[in-house]
Amino acid sequence: MNRRQLLTTIAALPAASQLHAQSEPKFRLRAGLVAYSYRKQFESKSLNYVSLIERIADWGLDGLDCTVYWFPDTSDEYLASLRKAAYKNGVQIYNAGVRVRLAQPTPELQAAEFENIKKWVDVAERIGASHVRVFGGAIPKGATEQQAIAWSVEVLKRGAEYAGSRGIILGVEDDGGLTIAAKPTIEIVKQTASPWVGINADSGNFRDNGYAQFAMVLPYATSFHLKRDITTADGKTEKADWNRLLTMIGKSNYKGYVGFEYEADNAETDVPPLAAELRTLVRKLSA
């Protein structure tokens, strides 16, 4: 190759590299695990959070979505031990799932739920989590969906003001009751109209047409769960196409953690290979 040919080849490299990048879009996603996957082990006390953090590190996952139901307490000592374990293992505790039910029909119940949000936002801050997921809860007996949405918004507005003052986002999860479908979940978030509120989008919780409903919540999503299965347009269940879902997430311009949540009964045998599958796909699609 003479000098002129060499220079021509070098000049063509950036264009070729750019073409390659355009054909294979890269996102900025990170793989996580939702602690609820091991609920039976937590309930039986055969597993604790420090051990789970160590497992996540061994599997090469990036983060933990911790479900606080199984915290033995919220003392400074205990929460500091979690934060230390996460740091030493290179795992980020990025999300906390709490027992908040937004749809409360009376001012007294709404005030109690707001106090519940405050408590767990403070806990999230102490363990280094920047996102707290909450739930719509059941539609109170005798109430309409629109009434339940209005009550939820009342609680969420107050919660968002408090959470935002600490740099923490509240994500309303699509998960049964009032938030079983995309439309009411989106309506709660839109009416709350706070930059500190979004949707914790769970691909496996929609009762029908999972991909279509998942697409609807993407513009409002602040955190994600993937489940092993997803519903079809006719309400049947099939194995979820995680590559399709992750591509949808990436194209929505979301950057951050996507956690796998396991809901069947064989976590000890089923979770590790599924976690490996998620890790591999996330790394393939991410910069």
Distinctive features:
alpha/beta; 10 strands; eight-stranded parallel beta barrel; single chain; TIM Barrel; 287 residues; two-stranded antiparallel sheet
Task: Characterize the structure shown.
It contains ten helices and ten strands. The protein is α/β, with parallel strands linked by helices. Helices cover 48% and strands 19% of the residues. It has helices at 3-23, 39-44, 49-58, 76-88, 107-127, 145-164, 182-192, 210-217, 242-251, 267-285, and strands at 29-34, 63-67, 92-101, 131-135, 169-173, 197-202, 221-226, 229-231, 237-239, 256-260. Strands 1-2-3-4-5-6-7-10 form an eight-stranded parallel beta barrel, surrounded by seven helices. The chain has a two-stranded antiparallel sheet with strand order 8-9. The two termini are 34 Å apart. The chain has one domain (28-285): Alpha-Beta Barrel (TIM Barrel), CATH 3.20.20.
Write the layout of secondary structure elements.
Layout: H1 3-23, E1 29-34, H2 39-44, H3 49-58, E2 63-67, H4 76-88, E3 92-101, H5 107-127, E4 131-135, H6 145-164, E5 169-173, H7 182-192, E6 197-202, H8 210-217, E7 221-226, E8 229-231, E9 237-239, H9 242-251, E10 256-260, H10 267-285
Parallel strand pairs: 1-2, 1-10, 2-3, 3-4, 4-5, 5-6, 6-7, 7-10
Antiparallel strand pairs: 8-9
Helix pairs in contact: 3-4, 5-6, 6-7, 7-8, 9-10
